[in-house]
Specification:
Blueprint: E1 11-12, E2 17-18, E3 25-29, H1 33-44, E4 48-59, E5 62-75, E6 78-87, H2 91-99, E7 102-109, H3 113-122, E8 126-131, E9 140-145, E10 154-159
């Protein structure tokens, strides 16, 4: 199991990279979760599926309830997530509408989502999605997106998982 690390805002001078924990998940947006599971099981083994509601997610400055159909597989220590957007305004819908089926984000487990978001905002990224509806249980998750000039990549930070 990959551990949780504390945030550091310093660059590693030896290789000029940000000091991030290891990526523990790669997520894909898909049109149909069940079809994608059938197609990708030969690559990533069996998937566990769940339908989730994300009440109170902050997207584009407003609170939205979002429903997703998810599947989780593995490639060694790396979790593979398949995401089908069902309803609600979210980055999932916008990404799928613009890019179709594709890699959506990479995820990092951290001990303080808010600190990482602040750090990434200082680096020029934008916090595009945030959910703390389970904060009383120590669970938060959020997406930070790089500007187009830096590739537009989405990074997910989770704590409490």
């Amino acid at each position: 199991m990959i551990g949780v690390v504390s945030v550091t805002s310093e660059l590693d001078s030896s290789d000029n990279s940000l000091s991030l924990p290891p990526i523990d998940q790669v997520a894909y947006m898909v049109a149909d979760r069940d079809e994608a599971v059938a197609r990708l099981e030969p690559l990533f083994g069996p998937f566990e599926t769940m339908d989730v509601d994300n009440p109170g997610s902050i997207y584009k400055g407003d609170e939205h309830d979002v429903s997703l159909r998810l599947a989780f597989g593995r490639s060694g220590d790396l979790e593979i997530e398949l995401i089908e957007h069902v309803s609600g305004l979210s980055p999932h819908k916008d990404w799928y509408d613009e890019h179709g089926e594709s890699i959506f984000h990479v995820r990092f487990k951290v001990d303080d989502v808010d600190a990482y978001l602040a750090w990434f905002e200082d680096e020029g990224n934008e916090t595009i999605w945030y959910n703390a509806s389970l904060a009383e249980h120590g669970i938060k998750y959020a997406y930070s997106q790089a500007p187009p000039a830096k590739g537009g990549h989405i990074f997910e930070f989770v704590q409490g998982f």
